[in-house]
Hints:
By secondary structure, the protein is mostly helical. It is about 75% helix and about 0% strand. The protein has helices at about 1-30, 35, 40-50, 50-55, 80-105, 110-130, 135-150, 160-190, 195-200, 200-205, 210-225, 235, 245-250, 255-270, 275-295, 300-320, 325-355, 370-385, 390-405, 410-435, 450-470, 470-490, 505-520, 525-535, 540-565, 570-590, 605-625, 625-645, 650-675, 685-710, 715-725, 735-745, 745-780, 780-785, and strands spanning about 60-70, 75-80. Strands 1-2 form a two-stranded antiparallel ribbon. Strand 1 and strand 2 (about 75-80) form a beta hairpin. The longest helix has about 35 residues, at about 745-780. The chain is elongated and about 115 Å long. The protein starts with a helix and ends with a helix. The relative contact order is 0.06. Mean pLDDT is about 85; it is low at about 785-788. This is Monovalent cation/H+ antiporter subunit A.
Amino acid sequence: MADVTALTFLALCLPLAGALAAPFVIRILGANGAWLLAAAPLFAFLHFLRLLPQVARGQIVTGGYAWVPSYQLSFSWFLDGLSLAFALLITGIGTLIVLYAGAYLRGHKDQGRFFSFIFLFMGAMLGIVVSDSFLMFFIFWELTSITSFLLIGFDHEREAARRAALQALVVTGGGGLCLLAGLLILWNMSGVTQMSQLIGLGDMLRESPFYLAALILVLGGAFTKSAQFPFHFWLPNAMEAPTPVSAYLHSATMVKAGVYLLMRLNPVMGATSAWEILLPFFGGLTLVVGTALAIRQTDLKLKLAYTTVSSLGLLVMLIGFGSDHAVEAAALYLVAHSLFKGALFMVAGIIDHETGTRDITRLGGLRRAMPLTWIIALAAAFSMAGLPPFFGFLAKEEIYTALAGGDIRAITFTAIAVFGNALMLAVALAVALKPFLGRPAQMPKAVHEAPVLLWLGPAVLAILGLLSAVFASFTHVALSSPIAAAIRGTPVEISISLAPHIGLPLALSLLTVLLGIGVYWQLDRARFWMAVFLRAAGRGPDHGFDLAMVGLVRFAGRLIRFVQPGRLEIYVACTFLCLAAILIIPPILYGELPHLPAWPTDVRLYEWAVFLIAAFGLAAVLVARDRLTAIVSLGIQGFAVAVIFLLFGAPDLSFTQFMVETLSVVILALVMTRLRLSPDDRRSPGRRLLHAALALGCGLGFSLLLLRATQLPFNDALTLFFNAYSKSIAHGANVVNVIIVDFRGTDTLGEIAVVAVTGLAILALIRIRAGSERKLAVNDPDAVGAGE
């Protein structure tokens, strides 16, 4: 167990190590460095593959390290059939993507940076699917949004790439905040912070009054990450990323994070009316919208991107449908989609790389120049179309077995599935046949077969799509059944194979094939009518996102201009207004106003004299006609207070006050004479009254606070503490000095820093004035003399 824990931790860290090493490896080895870099995900894949027999027997692999035990926070992982399958897909396809990117981006000046980003993305996605801790899960969830932002905007010099990256970050990041709130509610409802502990608490969660709130928030995170309608628009725009990113993003990583979350929570949040209404509705709607929009596209990557949207909708619909067969169909389609979609995206990249275009209307006749690529495209497309003998056929058969029924709900969703699968078949045939058949077209580049690193990845995935169906019994035991068991929360045994299954599912498959071939036969007409429909429907959520961002920027600008007008006078006034409110309002609300003391009768004559001097100083400040007089008059106030301290037995405090006031008056006087600011008070009468009210409010508030504090029983705990420990701990006989230097050393350091910053600001002001005077003297020598 210790060996498994250490190796699992190493496997999780390898992508991060690859991100650090990638720039140096590429700088030394160039594009051939991809072979060395691919060793990191390959090792992780082999480690997870070694755990496959153990998990297939129904065991769960857990491990990790306690982080903050008092808050139940840990760096822990949880590997069952679902998470292990995702880990294998992420690392296995990730290995192929690294090799593919080595050839696809050969010679690119930022290839090392690209590999760093892709490894960070890989590590983030791997962290999501193996995380047991809620906190660890959420951190990696947000890290996928950040790293996808970097990958989508990799060609940051293009405005379209920057917009797509920002759009993906805003949509998925906003959903992440919803997910965070949902996880906090789940923590509050269950009292646990780990997925493995949450799985057994389904009844408690479903019966909780907070269930619906948690469900909506969790769906907000899952729907935005997995591009469910109406948040689907960011995913096709993410095609601005290089093709290796698109292939990885759509096959095994970020877009399936939301699907993974829904599958993980199905045992504890499923089987409710809300779950079985919301998920099939939005999933079915996304399936229809995605396939319909895919028909309209002529760009190979965009056609595949929209079918990814529809496939994600199909998965969400199956997860929420509620039957056992639906869960099994979701497990099968999850694996099938990862294999054929990764292969087809890499094929699209090969076509673009070798011909210079992805426009399906400009492509044709490539079968002679690129026969191997065509064979790979056919194999992957047949699996996407649900044709035998590929794994996609088994998934489609199980989908129809799950959905087919006699009630209106079953009929509705069966019709949606047939419609969506038929359009996906048409798109698959278009991708696999249109570029390769027909007369050779004039291409921007000389066409030839791709190098081995480009066709190796899609070839492996296409072959796996075939072998996993041919040896279906082994695939189900090792992979499909453990996935379905984790989604359902109970043991599952999937038995579907390539053997003919006469019945309604097969009939629906034949209907799907006929409809799909019909749409493919009339693809140009279908594209035309879809464009007409979309123009009639008006602008969609993508345009709505732009409007929302423009509105957000305008609102932020107006808000900033309101709260930050750039006038120091307003900032100071707001500060004192808040201070007065804090000092006065709470004592009134909570009945803590002090009792007014009796008028003192034992005040000596010299004490009255000191108070009178302070009052005269205050009056002098108020009537002063220039700032220098006001500063000197303010010093009278400070000296009077210092004398009061001295009379009442605080000589140390009195001497400190004398020094502070003396230095303050001298420094301020020197600064004011150097700055030579306007001597006039140009405030309007209304503003003067407002400032006077603020000053009286702050003075009243501090007076009430001091009176209330002196009327409470004196607590001498701190006095006794300082008297007892000043000598023994700080080795100082002067308690006040020890408090300032030792016990409040950090506070004193902060005060010194404030004084230092103030001095620097004063110095800057003086230098600015001196510089302006020198410039004025150069331009107009008489103006300086006149100013003096």
